[in-house]
Amino acid sequence: MTTTAPISRDDGGALLRELTDAPALTVYRSLASSPKGLTEAEAADRLRRHGDNVVETRPEAGFAARAAAAVRSPFVALLSALAGVFVVVGDARGAVTVAVVVVLSIALRSWQHLRSDRAARALQSRVRTTASVRRRAEAGHAPLDREVPVEDLVPGDVVVLGPGDVVPADVRVVSSHGLKVDQAGLSGESLPVDKRPPSASEPRRRRAARAGLFGAPSLCFTGTSVVAGTATAVVVFTGRETCFGALAAEADRTRPESSFDRGVRAVGWTLMRFTLVMVPIVLAVNGAVTGDWAQAALFAAAVAVGLTPEMLPVVVTGNLVRGASRLARRQVVVTRLNAIQDLGAMDVLCVDKTGTLTEDRAVFAHSVDADGRVCEDAAEYAWLAVRFQDAPHNRLDEAVAAQLAEPGAELLADALYGKVDEIGFDPARRLSTVVFQREDEHLLITKGDPDEVLRRCTHLRRGEDAVELDRTGRLRSRDVVRAHAQRGMRVLAVAARRLPARPGPYDETDELALTLVGFVGFVDPVRESAAEAVRALSRHGVAVTIVTGDNEHAAARVAQQVGVPPGEVVPGRDVEAADDAALRRMVARTTVFAEVTPAHKTRIVAALRARGHVVGVIGDGVNDAPALRVADVGIAAERATGAAKRAADLLLTDSDLAVVARGVVEGRRTLGNTLKYVKITAASNFGNVLTVLAASVFLPFLPMLPIQLVVQNLLYDAAQLVLPHDRVDADYLRAPRRWDTAGLAGFMLLFGPLSSVFDLATFAVLWWPFGAGGDPALFQTGWFVEGLLSQVLVVLVLRTRGAPLRGNPPARPVVLAAAAVAAVGLLLPFTPPAGLLHLRPLPASYLIWLVVALTAYGVAAQLVKTRAARRRVVWP
């Protein structure tokens, strides 16, 4: 039994770098393992010490945790303070009423979060997988390869990898044959990469030049997948200690404050400041004038009630729930409810090139000769090699086979050619060769990396002749390859050699003295909808920034195709060298970043936010999790890794960028309908407070009791619960929108005094014509009804920038709800509950005044709104 203890991960990156180029014996010794694998006893002991090989996800939050998150809303704190005021003044009914509203708001928000989380977890569900591991029953016994659950892997285990396998841990390759791994989810590379153990013949300076751990050919990482070839590898890290786990941990960190969070906090503090200013003024003025401080305290309580939009949390949450439902029909699942309004405020969207703007596949583009002239010879030779190739096909092979296969071509090829041998793809050579029998000679066809193929060529093909490949020809051929790269294309070089027929196998020494036939070009097609989606986002004030791991030429080419002005393409090395201040200047002048790492992407997003932008990020790999977490809006596609989904706020069931463009409009509609309520309600409540302040000087009693104010506000708010169904002005949807504190204060100061003027006129009518000065109940009932009807009316007037009934009329549910609440307000004084609220029936003649006052108020509000709109006041 091995006695050396495996190295613990104090610095995982350092250990992986140490093992990258180490001999296999050193790797086994460092991990206290052997080529025969661990014994079952050793594996069980390490499993106890290291834990299961799982990247733990957060458990589903219970109702208590969700409720605690909802309680942290500033509006809930505002209402809780209001309930405290009722307790202090001894109004139990008012305290209970507000408490019910708070509980309703918390329950509604918690229920929606629960529903969203369950939908997201359904998208993230994964099947249980196993790994092929070499284990021994006891020391001295023969090793046996067997399947074990991935969760049971431990450091030091020897695993066997094959095509289709998902790499189960961070491993060091000790032997391989044609191993190709797709690690796009970690590194962002669009094509599979070659993996192999280090070669003693490879210059050490070449190995040292590789960029980062992901570029090390001898390392494979958790969550990547084997595309082709086989390998034996040793497990270095498992679970949370893997690179995948370290990146996934970013998904569980507390996200920075978003645009919505900042806006809601600012609005909450604005309302609090109005309350903190007005309440002491009313208390001091009324107490000094009347000398009755108990009465003054009741007036102050009425002011606090009047300023507080009691149903604000419920209305905001109702708007968000409605928005989430509409987004779900548009193929967007919301996992963080507030992100809907952040989506409406977004003005920069960072996207990866591969899979979002492009289709993430290779498609045959054309075939050219060594001089760059269109010629089908290279494509035909490549197709012939693919047709008889036994090794697994890569993306380029599949593209050749799909594009060039013609009816009867395979039968003709089988009749004309007989396969003799194959030299499989080797990551060190980066090419493969197939040998055919054609009459009395052998035809050797080699395809692969242009640099490697050109290095083995001595001639090039011009027409039917083979001419010597001199220095000029090599430079011209390399220019052809470079031109393709600058157009964002992948290039496959094809060469051939004719040999006399001979027995025996072929090997790498035969891949010399080749004749260059030409090059085959491939593209990753841009999605048909990508350009229109970019234009749609631009029309709505959202700039697209491309942040990709691909090279500069490919990134610039795709940017031009989809309509993103590339300007100065910034490579990741420049991002690495820039400090935070320089990076903030950099993001202001460019829209395309290429060859970036996950750390670069996160810094770019942070720099954009530091410049005041509301930033969205689309990502699908675990490498995107940190950036998704830092962004105001993190967006992940359905095919994204679990870590990306956990970090994201929105999950797309379709990767099409057009879905995001539609989601932006929906986010703005939700925000617009929310702000209608916030602004109009705050203005109406502020008008009530001004009225109470004036009344506190002249009236010997409260113009309306605190409980009456609460019920009036609740009835008004009930009518506003249908605002999520309302229409929004078209011009409002064309630009990013945020919670605007300055706009809120201006709106309150503009329309609050206007409503107060008509309230005071109502006071005068009640005091003199109706003689309510000696009947406080009649006076309070009269203002209760007039105040409720005027608030319901002004919503219909102020909900749109234009005329109330033309251009953008209110939705039917809004009109019906307003009519229903108005009817309840008129009838309530004549019902049994009126006694509980200290209300009494109104004289029929008072209805005449209501018609006159409401008509005049509606006209005045429209005139003031029209004047304000000419001054470009943002609406709603």
Task: Explain what the structure shows.
By secondary structure, this protein is α/β, with parallel strands linked by helices. Helices cover 50% and strands 16% of the residues. It has 32 helices and 24 strands. Helix 30 runs antiparallel to helix 31 and helix 30 (776-798) packs parallel to helix 32 (846-870). The protein is elongated and about 120 Å long. Residues 1-11, 123-127 and 203-211 have low confidence and may be disordered.
Q: Which class do the helix and strand fractions yield?
A: alpha/beta
CA distance, first residue to last residue: 75 Å
Q: Percent of residues in beta strands?
A: 15-25%
Average pLDDT: 83
How would the global form be characterised? elongated
Largest sheet: 8 strands, mixed
Radius of gyration: 36 Å
- Count of helix runs: 32
Number of strands: 24
Percent of residues in helices comes to: 40-55%
Primary descriptors:
24 strands; 876 residues; eight-stranded mixed sheet; alpha/beta; single chain; 50% helix
Give a brief description.
It contains 32 helices and 24 strands.
Q: What's the structural blueprint in terms of helices and strands?
A:
Blueprint: H1 12-20, H2 24-30, E1 38-39, H3 40-50, H4 63-71, H5 74-89, H6 92-124, E2 130-136, E3 144-149, E4 158-161, E5 170-182, H7 184-187, E6 193-194, H8 204-208, E7 219-220, E8 225-237, H9 243-249, H10 259-290, H11 293-307, H12 312-329, E9 332-334, H13 339-345, E10 348-351, H14 353-357, E11 363-368, H15 377-387, H16 395-404, H17 409-416, E12 418-426, E13 431-438, E14 441-448, H18 450-455, E15 457-462, E16 465-468, H19 471-486, E17 490-500, E18 514-523, H20 530-539, E19 543-547, H21 552-562, E20 570-571, H22 572-577, H23 580-589, E21 592-594, H24 598-610, E22 615-619, H25 625-630, E23 633-637, H26 642-647, E24 650-652, H27 657-698, H28 706-720, H29 741-767, H30 776-798, H31 812-827, H32 846-870
Helix pairs in contact: 4-6, 5-6, 5-11, 6-12, 6-28, 10-11, 10-27, 11-27, 11-28, 12-27, 13-27, 15-16, 20-27, 23-24, 27-29, 27-30, 28-30, 28-31, 29-30, 29-32, 30-31, 30-32
